[in-house]
Design goal:
Two copies of one chain form a homodimer.
Chain A (H helix, E strand, L loop, with lengths): L19 E3 L3 E6 L10 E3 L5 H8 L22 E9 L8 E6 L2 E2 L1 E6 L2 E7 L5 E4 L7 E8 L41 E2 L3 E6 L3 E12 L4 E11 L5 E7 L5 E8 L4 E4 L22 E8 L5 E9 L4 E4 L21 E4 L2 E3 L1 E6 L11 H13 L4 E4 L8 H10 L2 E5 L11 H18 L5 E5 L16 H13 L5 E2 L7 E3 L5 E2 L4 E2 H4 L7 E4 L4 E2 L2 H7 L2 H4 L7 H4 L14 H8 L5 H25 L6 E4 L10 E2 L3 E2 L3 E2 L1 H9 L3 E6 L4 E3 L3 E10 L5 E12 L3 E13 L5 E9 L7 E8 L7 E8 L19
Parallel strand pairs in A: 23-24, 23-33, 24-25, 25-26, 26-27, 28-31, 38-44
Antiparallel strand pairs in A: 1-12, 2-3, 2-4, 4-10, 5-9, 5-12, 6-11, 7-8, 7-10, 13-14, 14-17, 15-16, 15-18, 18-19, 20-21, 21-22, 29-30, 32-34, 35-36, 37-39, 39-42, 40-41, 40-43, 43-44
Helix pairs in contact in A: 2-3, 4-5, 11-12
């Protein structure tokens, strides 16, 4: 067997510069019983998933495009998979150690060396780090046996409820099937995995702790380290800025294997880390080196440190909601405050960007995170149905200024007060907290998704959630924690542009709501046309029908017959749809305008409202219709650009009472200037006008906007006009700010009258039409 | 100085039978600076308070009766107080130890022996236990220096806001002044305090842990002990029932000073502990004895163990409150379930029964707890403005079946994220949790009172509350915890019979409310007539005026000019009031009927509602008017008896839409049978009738009640009748159950018409009129 060796630089928080790492070649095969061996082995790509190796080895179809290919993996759910690899005994210097390290094996597994079991674990988030030194032979075989998928007796076995089976595991519930995710329960090695030669002196665990005073830009600083064989060795702790200048440089002799280093004085004149659009994302370089008496480096850890203080405080107006007795509690706070400044949290729900999270890389993460920055986002809610992402995700969020609302892997289930489950949760949560707390971008811990709702049936008293509060407070008390989302005052939903029972159009119900945070809301659309064309045979493309690729990719049969395509709504609003191009245009227009409405309305509800996070950002495979802003793998939909505009720090905005207008009706729009940052906006003339048919323009009014203060909106007049007779069924409201074209906003509305032509909207999406 | 010695039996959970305890004679004096000594010493009664010793020594007035005597203590708030006592060196056998023990010193103090500081503490709930052995001289002087009252810079200095000063202390906020408590900030030794000779082998800390399966009446059992010098000694662990039969008897040799003992098999055939009216309060006797090889007892701990499982689960109907998106979370659960059976929690808010909690004894506690049992109560919410009670309180709650909702000492303040405060809170909460968790009656931990309301301004993110969740889950995970009351779904208030702005009469708004728990609600009345006569000079008694004993004792000027007397309301409902007797009768009638209305209405709202706990049970000194059911020190008001009837496990009940009726109106009443226990109620004929003037009776209707199931109410018909012309302004609705006189309920309503006479209600209160 071929074996290759190289030393590589980690794309993660800590790098072990002085150690030698060896990658391995792996093979994998499946078997029916625990004690069997695979009859056949396939070449394995690590990190990845057993399904991917099986697919390549058995020449199965890829699961992304066309039909129900993902179902081909279901018969293997109850199989065992065994990975194997072999390696020669390394040449070790006196005292050196030889370790096997894996940053993630999904989900239950047994590791053996030369036939002897050396480790057993349930949990994909706790790094495996095994000292093999004393067990090495000249030729070694290492195996990892992956246990079958866990199923829970009494679970419902339909796509909607198969997630029941996830309720005793600390594993992404989404893999069991969701309304935008096929049932595809990944297993196997999903993160970096290697052999490592180390010195006997090792840095085992570190923690960078600081307590920042954002006003004085100074911080108490402490570095905690746990070593192996460190006593008597020398340490060097350095913190330097991007220009390479040290702001801290401490040296000394190590007197105990568990010790803390803290400078006498606070760190001063710090440049702070800010979320996107609120300031720079300054990161300092930290290095902790352990040397012997001769100065030889024995081990080293490096990290990026961003100095910021994060709080979650009561929303303005949150205390005075109840006037009559009996009084309940006030709303739960959702106002994020960074370095003493209020932040209006704008962003999206980060879901699995891949069915196979083993394939996620720094490069694939960066595409999405860079797009988030460009859309003026400053937060991701990392939804509890998915994984805790790899280190490079957090590194990139640090760099791009995207706060991370990190949920633990609990979603839409009642996780039991069962000692075995709670033990695994404790182990996994402890590993997760210790790892992620080091990141400047960490904004908020959360127990999981929608756990206090009827479909989950957990409460404040469930031990899993009390345990998570216990652990986060114990290990990382400075980061806010909530048990789940939504809490009281926060809102989830709705997920369509129009539903009569929910108050009609988004435009109609959204201004009547009063929430401190909109932490999930969606408006669906079909995918970009290129994505649709790749997704199914051309014969299925138009008209969309059940029983085709449209249905397997979530356009029909989700939450009722017509989601996420919503064909009856589209037909009602646009008449009979005659081509795929028209379908994409109308559906995406609806998503653009619906999302813009909610994002901007939530901002108009500031300061009581402090958060606007749509459902969802991306998708793990190609969805024919979905609430996502980005098609798999990384193609923005038209709505992505519109949402980005709705999230500009400063913009002119209009509250329009409905989307569809009838001939002869009096159109109205309340004007606003929205300002989410801590800078004043100078006064200017704001003009509202209607543009219809072939660029006919009618001015509604001029507003002499007087300017607004830091982090304050300004409400302007309401523009009103009896709508002129139009030829086309689309018209635009344009709100311009004199001298500030970057503040201009546009809204496309629907016009209904006799003899009206169905105009096709011009919308922009990746590789698509640009208006 | 006289010194007396005796061995006494603890009135507490654990008794140190093999040790010899010595009580001390104490003196106390005050001084202006830390390093001064008192110029004068007074004889001190321990346990007590420095104010009581000062009062006796200086022949000051008692603070309870008449005027503003409590204010005489205010000038001493910034004084230091020093206790002193002396004792001879005891004769100790080899290895014996000599300890100073105090179960409570209020609040910051320094203990010195022979002039040398040996201990310093902030916190009145952590027991002091100091080994003096190595420091003893032939003649010894022990001093305890009590620091001045803590005040907080920037606090508001009025009665309503002087509690601001409590916001950095783990001390009852109520002492700083409340709407029914004078400003009287106690300090000093407030619980049992003694010297103790011990063997070198000592039992330091124990914990009885069990995990009960209520269906099989079996429990996993474990006893954890921490010893001093225990290795090699013998232990005996016994658990016996009331008849003296052992159900567990384990012996062995102690191999480690920290160890656990657990029988191989579960305990079987257990008789369970139940709250009052739900079953018996069975308590087992536990003893843990450590002996030497010759069988001599070296140390021993005894305890009572009641086996029960307590859960707080979602209320029936609690999941389905929200139909429209966006959806917030469901209500917080308040359904207490004991041993798998739902309990409707009925009871009262336990406040300080004494200004000076040092005076509370088992005997004084028992008067109140026995009354609670007799009123069919099963819960006390031990309000966070007060203390954590002494051990005998919990012992008695175990015996009488009263669940304890135990709040930590936080109330109506924003307690800071300050490391010093949090350190004291951690120390105190840890002591409290370890002590109280052993009690069968412990039902619920709660962070404190009304902390999530506008007047306190704490949130889920405050470290004090996260710390308390962290500690309770870590030390006592099996007991539910809530951060504060009210939470969402729970209601506090209102506190008067009538207020226009709050929806009028209690009768009018209460049926429209929908809460899972009414955890505070009050209807005020003046005190019993004997109490009033003792409280102020006869010249002040009638008519009640501001600037008299009425005002200093809370009848005026509380929450506005007229609370708690509510004279405008009484005059509006009863006309000009002509005597003290009439005032007491009308005011107490209003309290009786108002409380009956709320208690019974909350029960009618079962199963969504699961808790009804009025504000408040007793009072710490004589209140001229208050929401209390019991006058200080222990005299029930009329409302106590009416509330007791409203809390009968089974009763006939009527929902009456208003209290005051006009001539010619159609009176109506919806009939119900209420059943809070897990027994069926057989069918019976229920008759509703009106009794007015001189026992004139008019039947409204007969209801052929068909019976109801375990823990289920039954709704009957609505009785209606045009009211007859009456002479008197009071009439009664009587609801009788044939063959079950104990289910009968009566309601007195107000009639308003021309030429109506003001009849004086006959109400029962201690030593008062019995109808």
């Amino acid at each position: 067997m071929k074996k290759f060796l190289f030393t590589f630089i980690f794309s993660t928080l800590f790098s072990f510069a002085q150690n030698t790492q060896t990658l391995l070649n792996w093979q994998v095969g499946y078997h029916s019983n625990s004690n069997d061996l695979p009859l056949k082995y396939y070449v394995s790509t690590v990190p990845g998933a057993v399904q991917l190796d099986l697919m390549v080895g058995e020449k199965m179809k890829q699961p992304y495009w066309f039909g129900n290919n993902f179902e081909q993996f279901i018969p293997y759910e109850q199989k065992w998979f065994t990975y194997k690899t072999s390696f020669d005994k390394p040449v070790l210097k006196t005292g050196q150690k030889f370790h096997f390290v894996s940053k993630g094996i999904d989900y239950q597994f047994i590791i053996s060396l030369n036939g002897e079991k050396i480790h057993e674990q349930e949990g994909m988030f706790t790094y495996v780090d095994l000292d093999l030194t004393s067990k090495l032979k000249d030729k070694n075989e290492l195996t990892i046996k992956i246990l079958p998928v866990i199923t829970v007796a009494g679970s419902r076995q339909t796509i909607w409820h198969y997630r029941d089976n996830a309720r005793t595991s600390v594993k992404p519930a989404v893999s069991y099937g969701w309304d935008w995710h096929p049932r595809l329960i990944t297993r196997g090695i999903w993160d970096e995995t290697y052999l490592e030669t180390r010195n006997s002196t090792q840095i085992k665990e570190v923690n960078t702790y600081y307590n920042l005073n954002p006003n004085s830009k100074s911080a108490f600083f402490r570095y905690d380290a746990e070593l192996l064989d460190g006593v008597g060795k020398m340490y060097e702790l350095k913190l330097s800025n991007a220009a390479g200048s040290d702001i801290l440089n401490l040296n000394g002799t190590i007197s105990s294997d568990k010790f803390s280093i803290s400078p006498k004085d606070s760190l001063k004149n710090l440049e702070l880390w800010w979320p996107n659009t609120y300031g720079k994302q300054t990161l300092y370089n930290l290095s902790f080196t352990v040397k012997d008496a001769s100065g030889t480096v024995l081990d080293k850890k490096t990290a990026k440190v961003g100095f910021r203080k994060i709080e979650m405080l009561m929303n303005e107006g949150g205390w005075i909601d109840f006037t009559e007795f009996p009084k309940p509690r006030a709303v739960a706070p959702t106002q994020i405050v960074v370095n003493g400044k209020k932040v209006f949290a704008k962003g999206s729900n980060w879901v699995h960007p891949e069915i196979f999270m083993g394939l996620a890389t720094r490069e694939s993460y960066e595409k999405h995170i860079k797009l988030a920055k460009e859309a003026n986002f400053n937060i991701f809610r990392v939804w509890g149905g998915g994984v805790i992402n790899k280190e490079s995700f957090f590194d990139l969020c640090d760099e791009y200024g995207i706060l991370v609302w990190q949920e633990f892997p609990l979603a839409c289930n009642e996780y039991p007060n069962d000692p075995k489950y709670l033990d695994v949760l404790k182990q996994e949560a402890t590993s997760i907290i210790k790892r992620v707390r080091q990141h400047a971008s960490l904004g908020l811990w959360c127990g999981g998704n929608e756990l206090f709702n009827e479909w989950s049936r957990m409460t404040d008293q469930h031990h899993a959630l009390r345990l998570l509060d216990h652990l986060t407070y114990g290990i990382d008390p400075q980061t806010p924690f909530i048990m789940t989302s939504p809490l009281n005052g926060m809102g989830h939903g709705h997920y369509v542009m129009y539903e009569q029972a929910n108050g009609g159009e988004v435009f109609q119900w959204m201004p009547k709501k009063k929430f401190t945070a909109y932490t999930e809301f969606g408006v669906p659309s079909v995918a970009n046309i290129e994505v649709l064309k790749a997704m199914m045979p051309s014969s299925e493309l138009f008209p969309p029908k059940r029983g085709t690729g449209w249905e397997t990719h979530h356009a029909f049969g989700v939450w009722g017959a017509n989601r996420w395509l919503e064909l009856p709504f589209l037909t009602e609003y646009f008449g009979e749809i005659k081509s795929l191009e028209d379908l994409v245009a109308y559906s995406q227009l609806s998503q653009c305008e619906g999302y813009k409405c909610i994002f901007e309305e939530s901002r108009r509800q500031k300061p009581f409202c402090a958060m606007s996070v749509n459902w969802c950002y991306q998708e793990p495979w190609p969805c024919a219709a979905n609430n996502s802003l980005i098609n798999w793998p990384s193609a923005p939909k038209a709505a992505y650009y519109h949402v980005g505009k709705a999230c500009r720090p400063v913009l002119a905005s209009a509250r329009i009472p409905k989307w569809r207008w009838d001939e002869g009706e009096t159109f109205s729009a309340e004007l606003f200037m929205l300002n989410d940052i801590h800078e004043k906006v100078p006064g200017a003339k704001v003009t509202a006008k209607i543009v219809y048919d072939d660029n006919k323009t009618l001015k509604l009014l001029d507003w002499e906007f007087a300017g607004c203060n830091e982090y304050e909106n300004a409400a302007g007049p309401t523009a009103r006009m009896v709508l002129p007779k139009m030829k086309n069924n689309l018209f635009k409201l344009v709100v311009e700010v004199a001298g500030k074209p970057e503040y201009t906003s546009e809204y496309t509305c629907i016009y209904r009258g006799n003899d009206v032509l169905n105009a096709k909207p011009k919308i922009k999406y990746l590789n698509g039409v640009v208006e």
